[in-house]
Amino acid sequence: MSKPKPIMRGQMPMAKPNNLGNTVKRVGSYMKEYKWLLVIVFIAIISSALANVIGISFLQVIIDDYLEPLIGNYNETLMRGFVTVIGVMALIYFTGALSTYIFQRVMLHVSTKTLYKIRIDLFTKMEALPIKYYDTNTHGDLMSHYTNDIDTLREVLSNGVANFISAMITVVGVFAMMIYFSWELTIIVLLMLFLMLFAVATIGGKSAGYFVQQQQHLGKVNGYIEEMIEGQKVIKVFSRQEQVVEDFKVYNEELRENATKANTFANILMPVMGNLSYILYAIVAMTGGVFAIYERLTLGTVVAFLQFTRTFSQPIAQLSQQLNAVLTALAGAERIFKVIDHDPEEDEGHITLVPVQVDDHGEITEVTESTGVFAWKELKQDDTPTYTLVRGNVVFNEVVFGYEPDETVLKGISLYAKPGQKIAFVGSTGAGKTTITNLINRFYDVPAGNISYDGIEINKIKKSDLRRSLSMVLQDTHLFTGTVMENIRYGRLDATDEEVYAAAQLANADSFIQLLPEGYETVLTSDGGNLSQGQRQLLAIARAAIADAPVLILDEATSSIDTRTEALIQKGMDRLMKGKTSFIIAHRLSTVRNADAIMVLEQGEIIERGNHDQLIEEKGKYYQLSAGMFELS
Amino acid sequence: MMKKLAPYVGEHRLYAILTPLMIIGEVALELMIPLMMAGIVDFGIQGDGGIAYTVRMGVLMILMSIVALIFGALGGKFAAMAGMGFAKNLREGLFDKVQEFSFGNVDKFTTASLVTRLTTDVTNTQNAFMMILRMAIRAPIMLIGATIMAIAINPQLSLIFLIAIPVLSITLYLIGSKAHPRFLELLERYDKLNAKVQDFIVNIRVVKAFVREKHEEDKFVESAESVRKAQVNAEKLIILNMPIMQFTIFSSIIAILWFGGNMVIDGTFYIGQLSSFIMYIMQVLISLMLISMIFIMVIISRASVTRIVEVLDEKPLLDDEDGNQELELQDGSIVFEDVDFSYNEDPDNLVLKNINLKIYSGETIGIIGGTGSAKTTLVQLIPRLYDVLHGKVAVGGHHVQEYKLETLRDQVAMVLQNNVLFTGTIKENLKWGNQHATDQEVEEAAQAAQAHQFIQSFPNGYETVLGQGGVNVSGGQKQRLCIARALLKKPKIVILDDSTSAVDTATDTAIRTAFKEKLQDVTTLIIAQRITSVSDADRIIVLDDGKINGFDTHENLLKSNQIYQEIHQSQGKGVNINE
């Protein structure tokens, strides 16, 4: 099992969505229940954009119909008309501003609710994914769905889409008004528009290309930073600081060159667009002026048209920018949906685990309170339950398994563990020890052969119930961010404080916990950074102990605990394992010495089995291992 | 805080100055355009200017726009050069600084946090810097320029500016200052949510093994809902910006049209001037909006800047300025005198207590003790990875602080417990010990560390490329490579901190035999879990809870030391084949 990879930082998804229509529909389906709110949003956006456009066209009316006629000859009726027009314009503007607020506020509600739903959906679906999915995707990739993908989607949902629609309506509205006012001037605008679009395409395209390169170099620099900071202590021990800094400078300079290019193009886009629009403005002013002098156009028309010209360029630049953002977000959404659509862990089991009471006659009755005694409950066709007591009788019959179809890790493993037995696995890395335990709890499913538990084939047992019947200490000891108390209680959520203390004492963890600054209330960081590996293992043992399940699986549970401490917890462990079937994987032979049966695994096969004395007697691999004749790695 | 970062602009200072200059040029030209438009309307169309004047002004406007375009584009280019150059220098400065850090400094920040500070935080700061270069000058100049133009055209009507500007700025300020803490709250909850997810992903096997999916889901739903609420709470204020901005612009336009229109009717004002006024007020108010956006940017990046400055301000916990350049280690002797040590320099929280040791040059010393007995801490004081709290550590005849760090560490080769190999070939990794080592020297070191054989078994031998962290070699192989790397230094003292834990006992013995034969004069300290790894050492230190519990030969300790007996028993009983 590989260690968790550090999250890659500074990664930016650049991919475009593959199936645009479908992804849009999927995002839309999350918003279905806000259908009517979205209608309101849409109306408000139109009203807001049009108010702006219509407001400008009022300039023409005011200038041509009121101001010009009124200059020098005062007229009561016209003056009253002027007041009315100004009033109507104010009303339209006020409606526009109000509409802006309305669509933003409603959209905020809809977008946050939608994001919330997508997040929850992603998380619940991710939880149900098989372990294999986690094996084949790095933590960084999985994490990026919650950070990168959701973030870009958030940005677009709360601003992007609305702005995009608004910009589109504005462009169309302005364009319509322009044609209405003067088709001749509109032609000039169109010609200029092509030039502007060309500028957007060229500059934007260049910028995007360089940004991809910049991201690659950024990834390289950040990767180097990560590696060197992680190895900083080694660098110090070898006094290699200068060399490392020299190498870093080279990467850093490469990044600077690429980043400068990428940002240059990104930076010049807006000024180029802005000033092209000023050039257009100048041309329209000049031509319009000439037209006005020849009285082909009224003064008000020219002034209003000029104002439209200014209003035109901003939404166009915005459209191209927003389009990019929307596409990036949809690509992110597509990745999220891919996770959501991934097949969940299969669970066709129907047999459940229930607490029971057994009376003197061996009669089994189901109870609600935990009694420490459990039974497998199977419903017959007529819904009458049958109970099988959980004893911890595990049998492997010719089990073949590989993580990938073309490589077999286990080649026909057969073994049995009788109730209460302690079974140990010994062997090199890759021999298949952990794999065996991963099959018992069905982290993976067996393609050939079968595994039974108390005589029941394990895939008939409901997965959650199967796992509830197994207490595990996993190979890579991970703890949760939270207090020591919470971490131990993870094994059984309703455990009392006293039970937690007892479990900690059993695992010999109590003494070091007492020495922590806040005792049991000390908050551990996610990787348990403030504890040593050995201490974390002790906590993991306590966590498994409190779960108190009929079968125990300890996968290298004491590998980082010194032998003297291990000897100290041995008593507790023995108490814990009493009456329970337990599977123990260990590197250190002293850990497995008192097992009922020791299986020596090599390349997916059990090559020796027996208890310690028998195996020593056999003078085989186990004997050689004990004598330190070869390496376990 | 900003002052602290200014020097990192460095050689890109010229561009940092040119950027605002270009932008001032662009803004100045932009400010002229409404005025010229007014000229065309009032003098060209309505006045006596006619076509000649209109075309002249039109062409002039086009030329000015082209010049403004050039200014603007150059401003963008220079901003990119200055911004990226600044980021480069800042990154380098931080990287340099981290290289100066001692173990204590790294422990304080944690590795993960340092990585974030050098990556994400630098990117945030760089973006904010570029934004400030381009906008922080542009917006105020535009604001002031447009106001001056408006006053010049019609002082009376520009009273509208005097009302609109303060009204909008105060509103934006109020919204911003109210929203700020809410955004911090949002970020905090968002971080928490992400931390939860990360926790979950790392712990997926635990979650599944204990069937805690529902539990995790409940935690997540709660967290997601709190993020949603915080987002609504923060953004519902920010979305007020746009409508209020529109409201102010629209009100100003209405006011200008009404009052200005009346002036036009009275003949004291012209239609062209009126519409230029509308353009100016829009420029002013949009600038105000930009300023408020810059403030938000600055606030957001402030957290990043603070975190960067923290790194830059950090004093390396130990330095060798008082070290004597000439001083070399005479031999491999080590002396501890009344040494107390604490990681947080707290006398009430001592990790090592009153340590007294005298190790002679050339001795092989085993160190044994339980988890948390401070074995690693003890040996880390020898190459001065940390400084003692009290007492003194002398190596090679002198107090460790009298040496230059490089001299000391070159002579004390330490194989760390959590060892790291770097991306690169095996040979490159080994040569960390000595860059100028010949191939033969590299091979010799590998042989002593019992690594030569397996290296040769790789198809590419010494040229085999290792992934980050040495992912493609097994634990035992990695440990042997690390030992070989340390041996290449040809040190006077070698410290192996549990460096053969994944190596089988036979190889472990071979390594120790090689050490005995080839490194007779080298003092060797071996920390181990296995008693067999230390039993043939000259003397063995038994550490217990930061104190020396025994320091003697294997035989004597077996006789007299209770802890040593217990360790021996925990490993020895039953498996007696070896003895």
Automatic annotation (TrEMBL), chain A:
Keywords: ATP-binding, Cell membrane, Membrane, Nucleotide-binding, Transmembrane, Transmembrane helix, Transport
Annotated membrane topology: Multi-pass membrane protein
Span of domain ABC transporter: 394-628
Transmembrane stretches, start-end: 36-62, 82-103, 161-181, 187-205, 276-294
Top-level taxon: Bacteria
CDD domains per the UniProt record, alphabetical: ABC_6TM_Tm288_like, ABCC_Glucan_exporter_like
Any one Pfam family match given in the protein's UniProt record, by short name: ABC_tran
Family matches, as SUPFAM superfamilies: ABC transporter transmembrane region, P-loop containing nucleoside triphosphate hydrolases
Main location group: membrane
Annotated ranges, domain ABC transmembrane type-1: 39-328
Protein name: ABC transporter ATP-binding protein
Organism of derivation: Natronobacillus azotifigens
UniProtKB/TrEMBL annotation, chain B:
Chain ranges of the ABC transporter domain: 334-570
Any one annotated GO CC term: plasma membrane
UniProtKB keywords: ATP-binding, Cell membrane, Membrane, Nucleotide-binding, Transmembrane, Transmembrane helix, Transport
Keyword Transmembrane helix appears in the UniProt entry: yes
CDD domains for this protein: ABC_6TM_Tm287_like (cd18548)
Pfam families attached to this UniProt entry: ABC_membrane, ABC_tran
Keyword Repeat: no
Molecular-function GO terms, alphabetical: ABC-type oligopeptide transporter activity; ATP binding; ATP hydrolysis activity
Residue ranges constituting the ABC transmembrane type-1 domain according to the UniProt record: 17-298
Cellular localisation: Cell membrane
Spans through the membrane: 21-41, 53-74, 135-153, 159-176, 238-260, 280-300
Coiled-coil regions, chain positions: none
Major site of localization recorded for this protein: membrane
Topology of the protein relative to the lipid bilayer: Multi-pass membrane protein
PANTHER family per UniProt: ATP-BINDING CASSETTE SUB-FAMILY B MEMBER 10, MITOCHONDRIAL, ATP-DEPENDENT PERMEASE MDL1, MITOCHONDRIAL
Protein's recorded name: ABC transporter ATP-binding protein
